Amino acid sequence: MHEEIYIAGIGGQGTLSMGQMLALAATSENKEVSYVPFYGPEKRGGFANCGVTISDHPISSPIISEPSVLVVMNNLSLKNYEDSVIPGGIIILNSSMVDLGVKRSDVRVISIQASEEAEQLGDVRVTNSIILGALIELTGVVSAGAVEQSLEQILPARNLDMIPINLKALERGSELARNYKKAWSNLS
Amino acid sequence: MKKITARPYSLRDVPFHYCPGCMHGIAHRLVAEVIDELGVSGRTIGISSVGCSVFAKHYFNVDMIQAAHGRAPAVATGVKRVLPDRVLFTYQGDGDLAAIGIGDFIHTASRGEKITTIFVNNTVYGMTGGQMAPTTLIGQVTKTTPFGRSVEINGNPIRVCELIAPVEGVAYVERVSLHNPKEIIKAKKAIKRAFEMQLNGIGFSLVEALSACPTNLGLSPLEAIKWMEEKMIPFYPLGVYKSPAGVV
Amino acid sequence: MRRFLMKGNDAIGEGAILAGCRHFFGYPITPQSEVAHYLAKRLPEVGGLFMQAESELASINLVFGAACAGARVMTASSSPGVSLMQEGLSFLAGSELPCVLVNIMRGGPGLGNIGPSQGDYFQATRGGGHGDYYTIVLAPNSVQEILDIMKKAFDLSDMYRMPVVVMADGIMGQMMEPVVIDEEKSVEIPPRPWATIGRDYHEDRNEINSLFVVLEEMEEVNLRLLHKYEEIRAKETLCEEYMLNDAEVALVAFGTVSRICRAVVDKAREQGIRAGLIRPITLWPFPYDVISRAAKSAQCLLAVEMNMGQMFEDVEIGAKGRVPVYHYGRLGGMVPLAKDILEELKKVSERGGTGR
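YS: structure for the whole thing
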């Protein structure tokens, strides 16, 4: 197993915490992992991307230039990174924020209205957990249980009451992804 | 025969290199006598600065550190923060303290570091050969103010005691002079009080000692003393500027 | 033994604490400030002192003072701040004081930017300040190695009584990787009979000094430093080799870039190009002998850096003109991409030993 996951969006969308949850989950499963954030100099509202490499083997480069999975949280990130995904890779779109279409035909694309889904669950702040739920369902890169446990480490103490709704969001993302998985397996 | 005076224990038995009429030797002796009288010689660490007084590192019979130009207060703070029960003094000239090192000096004072600074002000750079100091008087001729210090070109002299006394964290500030025996006796008392502020954990203490540099003033030692009385002391008034009782 | 996820900047701080460092003096600068944030919280927990100074000048001189007092002490900064510390570093070297300075390099010159860079290679490996001296320079390339190398940095600085520089960049600082900490390991800090801690606490009288007005005395000090540096060159050079034995093209890279280059070597080999990697871990002393050996077996060397070609010059010195040495660099805070390095590697591998 070796996945190079690139998560791209803007500050406040939870892109970095998504990456950190993956890294924490991988660590707890004794996998090799590297997490590298990239963000603009603005303290609020600038770009906020991160790369997470998870592998069974020691990781050479922590810098991802050709991801196997791309998570896109805004239009600009799709423009910037669509071409970098390896053939056969996965692009996960938060289609609540991204209205551009994916031009590539050699990648698998999953669109989730994650912000609306989160609002329906009661808090738009769990948008990233919906995407993350989908990501782990599609890739199996870490277990759902390990991600759930990472919530405790990543959430600030004042937000620990957010755990149940995040769990729901992870489950909802996973459910939505299962539909895609079925469709993809029918195709192939 | 009765011995009535001797070299202080805290001063090493080596000849001073200072010029005739220079008052560093007097200041050294006063500091050493105070260290002896307070019985802290074995736990005192001195920091010498850059300028003529760099050789202080050689003369005091206590552990000594030679710091970079202007950095003696930072170095002293570094030692004191590791070893709070030791006695720290910096020995700095006017260039070291009031020009390149004024930032370190102010911040060390405002942090209320329990260290004592002996500041020797002779209004001129000695070791580099008689250039203008931040304390050079208006009109005073130096190698870099050959027509006399002018406000337009060089700005105004800095009065260090007046500058630092109002700063919180500062426990004791006094300006003394080393030009005659009466003032030297007062100077020693001031140095002692400054060290006591440190020993009692009250805060930062400063003694500014006015001194003459006959070599670079181009005067004889006696003329230099007269110059101090007529020119220097009127601009740099002697006295206590701050004590635990408050700013004077 | 515990395995957990840690950020590079935190590993610098925790590594220092594990090494017995209890004093930190520093001044904020991006992208180094997180080291300070970590230690500001963590040092008081272990009975240590974190102190924010008013400038980098003060920071390095507070370090100087604490080192005089016998403490294991460090500071951390980033390129412009490290420039400000160079006078202090020269005084530390001249006074033969141990301490550790971490430089999280950023884009430059001038104020530059906060992007990752390796532009301070010359400054670090050639002493940096005025006068005839070196500092040991360590360049880790993973969070685990950062954690371990901090201990090594303090040990070396004590052993040779000199400042040790640890160099990384913003990526290394921000990167999170699992680390294993052996908390059982005890630290032994060597005695410091030379420290200025007051005459009551040691024999005779101690003086810490870098002023030697008698020329012969200064030369004696310089010679003592020279012998020390020769011993370090002989004993302390550290270098990692990867797939080097049969390599036709040997990449040379340190820090973040060495990680990318390792992946490039794998990709090149998949495509039938026999590539290898030399990773200097000590940038001073530089592993000239490994370069020299590679220059006998490989057809050419390719230095990859985040600068205009600084380590490149050391690679040329090591290669002694035997084979061509090429350079590929990204500048201004940009990171070289694996595919671009691979392109460059293919180019130089075609040119091979036929010159530039």
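YS: worth flagging: The mean pLDDT of chain C is 96.
IM: good catch. Also The radius of gyration of chain C is 21 Å.
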